[in-house]
Amino acid sequence: MKRREFMGALGGAGLLLATGTSLAAEYREGQHYRAIQPPLDTGLEDGKIQVVEIFWYGCPHCYEFEPKVQAWKPGLADDVQFEYLPAPMNDVWALHARVYYTAEKLGVLDEVHQAFYDAIHDQGRQLRSESAILRFINQRGLDADEFRETMRSDAIRQRIVEATEAVQDYGVGGVPTLVVNGEAIVSASMAGGHDEMLEVADYLIERARG
């Protein structure tokens, strides 16, 4: 199954290792990252490297990781494509994944993505029902009726099905998680922290370049 068919891309690029040296001796498979065997097709053209962050809006660790990701992405080079994958691991997670894909489809992701995180973690809002989400959307000055209809559409339901299959294919059990080029999984517990996740991702990007 081709990943590019269902994942939303948010700009992108690739980052050279800050040290300029190989970190192969420092980052070990099975210790700092897990290899995906066999590697999964990213669906991207040759020469492109995919980095996917698997997340859930309600996850405090994802919320803490997000500013680091936002600071890291602008440094990525043109051969790297960064994508988000909201994990629909249960009903609430799936509802929040629908928010992400709906905002993306309507072209309002920049207005919704961080604000949705902030509403949950800074303002203590539950946002665990469609009605609560639509109140949030209305308060953002967006068309809640259009948002509701899009959330309920067959297109968004299909995105959730495909996202569920992707999470299963990757073998992901928690968030936040990075998947580099369909070849390797990086988590905070494996890498040693959120900053370290990005450092390992840098190494894996360099390795993917060959």
UniProtKB/TrEMBL annotation:
<dbReference type="InterPro" id="IPR001853">
    <property type="entry name" value="DSBA-like_thioredoxin_dom"/>
</dbReference>
<dbReference type="InterPro" id="IPR023205">
    <property type="entry name" value="DsbA/DsbL"/>
</dbReference>
<comment type="similarity">
    <text>Belongs to the thioredoxin family. DsbA subfamily.</text>
</comment>
<dbReference type="InterPro" id="IPR017937">
    <property type="entry name" value="Thioredoxin_CS"/>
</dbReference>
<dbReference type="InterPro" id="IPR036249">
    <property type="entry name" value="Thioredoxin-like_sf"/>
</dbReference>
<protein>
    <recommendedName>
        <fullName>Thiol:disulfide interchange protein</fullName>
    </recommendedName>
</protein>
<dbReference type="InterPro" id="IPR013766">
    <property type="entry name" value="Thioredoxin_domain"/>
</dbReference>
<keyword id="KW-0574">Periplasm</keyword>
<dbReference type="GO" id="GO:0015036">
    <property type="term" value="F:disulfide oxidoreductase activity"/>
</dbReference>
<keyword id="KW-0676">Redox-active center</keyword>
<feature type="signal peptide">
    <location>
        <begin position="1"/>
        <end position="24"/>
    </location>
</feature>
<keyword id="KW-1015">Disulfide bond</keyword>
<dbReference type="Pfam" id="PF01323">
    <property type="entry name" value="DSBA"/>
</dbReference>
<feature type="domain" description="Thioredoxin">
    <location>
        <begin position="14"/>
        <end position="206"/>
    </location>
</feature>
<keyword id="KW-0732">Signal</keyword>
<feature type="disulfide bond" description="Redox-active">
    <location>
        <begin position="59"/>
        <end position="62"/>
    </location>
</feature>
<dbReference type="GO" id="GO:0042597">
    <property type="term" value="C:periplasmic space"/>
</dbReference>
<dbReference type="InterPro" id="IPR050824">
    <property type="entry name" value="Thiol_disulfide_DsbA"/>
</dbReference>
